[in-house]
Amino acid sequence: MLKTLLKKIKNNQKGFTLIEALIAISILMLTITAPLYIVTLSLRSSLDSRDSITAYYLASEVIEVVRRNRDTLSFTTDKANWLNGITGSVDCITGDCILEKDSTGYVFESCNGSPCPNMTFDPDNDVVYSGPSLVATPSKFNRKLRLTKALNDNGAPNEINREVDLYVTVTWEDRGNVRTYEAKESLLNLSYKDYAR
Predict the structure, then answer these.
(1) The pTM is what?
(2) How far apart are CA 102 and CA 125, in angstroms?
(3) Would you say 165 and 150 are in contact if contact means Cβ atoms under 8 Å apart?
(4) Residue 41 Cα distances to 36, 45, 88, 113, 187, angstroms
(5) What span, in angstroms and rounded, lies between the C-alpha atoms of 32 and 28?
(6) Which DSSP letter does residue 166 get?
(7) Sign of CA dihedral 92, 97, 99, 100
(8) Using an 8 Å Cβ cutoff, are 28 and 22 in contact?
(9) Each residue of 150-185: pLDDT tens digit?
(10) CA nearest to 67, candidates 192, 154, 193, 164
(11) Contact at 8 Å (CB) between 155 and 189?
(12) CA-CA-CA-CA torsion for 62, 58, 96, 105, nearest 10 degrees?
């Protein structure tokens, strides 16, 4: 009798059925897929943060260069045309401009009514970034700036600007979507008190 019972138990344990195997594989796939999905989301979030931080610093750089140019101007000759000294005689009020940097320093360039080019990088030739160049590595970042008369500048429309707003826009493409970071800074003519009376 014991022999017959052991034989029945042995015959009943032939292995997993197909349904049990499919359930086991499904559970295994879920336990592997969920962590991989979380890692993918983390990497994507990390890349998004990197691009956003880069855009912030690119915009901040323009603001700091313009502010430095304004603060170091010599107002001894033409105090009214202070904006010419800030952008190196490039008109950034009627159109968009770009800021280039090479081994000699910062230079403003007008986009001349056309879309501003993406930034390019060429650290090997002492060109940190610039407009279009044949030897430089293209970047996904586009940075442009514009100066406008501030809304709270109480001067008459034909008066020289006492206060201007600097707008910096950095755009880049990320997985088919255009992302934008915008910054604004208000700048006062530091010598206005000397010629406004």
Answers:
(1) 0.73
(2) 9
(3) yes
(4) 9, 6, 45, 40, 41
(5) 6
(6) E
(7) negative
(8) no
(9) 776 666 555 566 788 999 999 999 888 999 999 999
(10) 164
(11) no
(12) 50
